[in-house]
Amino acid sequence: MTTRNIKHWFDSGTPYIWLNAGAVTISVLLVMGLLFLIAYRGLSHFWPSEIAEFQLTEADSNTITVIGEMVEYETVQRSRLPEGDIRIPESEELVSRTLIKMGNRDYFGLDFMWVVDLAVRDIKYPNDLMAVERHEWGNLYGYLVSVKQNGEELGDKASNLWVLFQEQIIASQDVHNEIEHVEKDLIGDINYKMERLRLKQRSLERSGITADSAQLRETTEQQRLLDEEYNSYSSQLGNLYERLNQFSFVTRLSDGREVELPLAQVVRAYQPNNMNIAEDIIHYLMKLWEFVSDEPREANTEGGIYPAIFGTVIMVLIMAVMVTPFGVVAAVYLHEYAKQGPLVRTIRIAVNNLAGVPSVVYGVFGLGFFVYFVGGNIDALFFSDSLPSPTFGTPGLLWASLTLAILTVPVVIVSTEEGLSRVPRAIREGSLALGATKAETLFRTVLPMTASAMITGLILAIARAAGEVAPLMLVGVVKLAPSLPLDGNFPYVHLERKFMHLGFHIYDVGFQSPNVEAARPLVYATALLLVLLIIILNLAAIRIRNKLREKYRASEQH
Questions:
Q1: What is the model's pTM?
Q2: 331 and 417 Cβ atoms separated by less than 8 Å
Q3: What per-residue confidence (pLDDT) applies to 90?
Q4: Which pLDDT score is estimated for 517?
Q5: Could you give the count of Cα atoms lying within 13 Å of 368 in the half-sphere of its Cβ?
Q6: CA–CA dist 107, 173 (Å, integer)
Q7: Strand order of the sheet with strand 52-57?
Q8: How far is the C-alpha of 134 from the C-alpha of 367, rounded, in Å?
Q9: Could you tell me which of 47, 139, 330, 388 has the fewest CB atoms within 10 Å of its CB?
Q10: What is the pLDDT of residue 557?
Q11: What DSSP designation does 340 have?
Q12: Which 8-state DSSP code applies to residue 493?
């Protein structure tokens, strides 16, 4: 190819088209690869892994037995290995080792251990090895020895012991769910009513109403009825706990010890070495459903993340409701009503600069202005009976949503202004020439044509707000929320409550968990769920935008 042809080829722009296409392709492949890695590392965690029984030789030639799941393999320099664990030949510079999840943390002190492959004498996969998921202390691995009721053994060890064990687990779970219903729903509602009644009594007393007044007598009678109801549920709860604590099971650990544990601790038990592919799939789907629908346990390293999903969605929805009108009104004023000059240009520069302010600064602002100033004054004016316990003068869902609304409002303003600038001036002048007022022109002609730009700004705001963590740590998000912001108690939506968030859950599990190895797969799974949630919210907003575009085009054709 001659120099002239090369110059003509570059002048035609073809190389730049291919370069742009290559850059886009590489970016898409990188994003898809990242999503695939997150999905694989996160979703594979729920598949039932086989449990192995290892025979290990220690440095003093003693043999020990370890039971657990093989989690990870790696090859390391022998200098990285602890000295004295095993005798390694001098010729071996690289040593392979396996990370084993051995569970039984309450008995062995740790969940995971690295095993040098040279120390492994034998590996077996007995069919009767079981994994027991517990409400506390993580997984337990061992052999089922017996099932007991009030200290007496049940069933025949040779035949139906495992079936009996599963039946008692199901029965215990039913009792556990009933206890949870009584504690959280029934007694929780009574406690809420008692607190409201206490505040009402305090308000009456502060207003000077005497103890023999009809209002105070009525509140006293309501208090008595609530106390009776509370005592009734407490008695019912005691009976349920008595039923729950009747059953226990005995298991044999890897060191030969036989320990007895209450069935009340068990979430589920299974024998992965004895399961077929259909049972593996059913177990996998059950674990996935538990992950998205249940509450967390074990310092957020076990169980589900439903409160974090709920908190993220409701926070984003409240933020969207708040940011859209403020952003649109500000953009309309700047573009349609404000006199263009140095002041308006300065405001636009300030709005654009706000988009680059670190998010943690917004968190500090939200804490100082919304929580302490606005919330403190609201408490002083409307919730003085609750003081010194704050109601709105503490971080909560409302202040988190407002903080993110301020954080994302520059995006909505800029996007809406761009949409307003794309509306031809002739359309405005034609509407005014036909006798419409400026407000009618704005609401009936200009804003409908700008709807897609407004939704675009909202999409960008949702994408940014859903992934923010730093400001939320200051204005409302917590590691574990005792109750959801939405329940059956008036006013039903409790904006003053603290809440859980997927982004903070990832940070907490990944960096604050005392059991890093156990929490690592959940970091990937939660990150994947956060990405999917943002995609779903964005797709919903995009669908609304496309419908608005079609509606406007149809009306334009008519």
A1: 0.88
A2: yes
A3: 65
A4: 79
A5: 6
A6: 24
A7: 112-116, 94-101, 63-77, 52-57, 120-124
A8: 38
A9: 388
A10: 52
A11: P
A12: B
Q: Find the DSSP H helices in 336-435.
A: 342-354, 359-365, 376-382, 397-422, 425-433
- What is the number of alpha carbons within 13 Å of residue 418 lying toward its C-beta? 13
Residue 121's SS3 state is strand
The span from the CA of 318 to the CA of 492, in Å, is 15
Mean pLDDT by 10 residues, the chain (558 residues): 72 82 92 91 90 83 87 82 64 82 88 85 91 91 91 71 91 91 90 88 78 78 91 92 91 92 92 94 94 86 90 92 91 87 85 85 94 94 88 93 93 90 87 87 87 86 87 91 83 90 90 79 91 85 78 57
Tokens of 441: 């022109």
Helices of type H across 468-515: 472-475, 502-511
Class of domain 310-478+489-499+534-557 as given by CATH:
mainly alpha
How far CA 197 is from CA of 184, 219, 220, 232, in Å, comes to 19, 7, 9, 19
Query: Where do the domains of the chain lie?
Result: 3-45, 48-150+253-273, 173-245, 310-478+489-499+534-557
Q: Which two tokens stand for residue 516?
A: 């890093």
Q: At what angle do helices 14-43 and 516-557 cross, to 10 degrees?
A: 130
Closest CA relative to residue 126, chosen from 274, 259, 255, 256:
274
Q: What is the pLDDT of residue 159?
A: 60
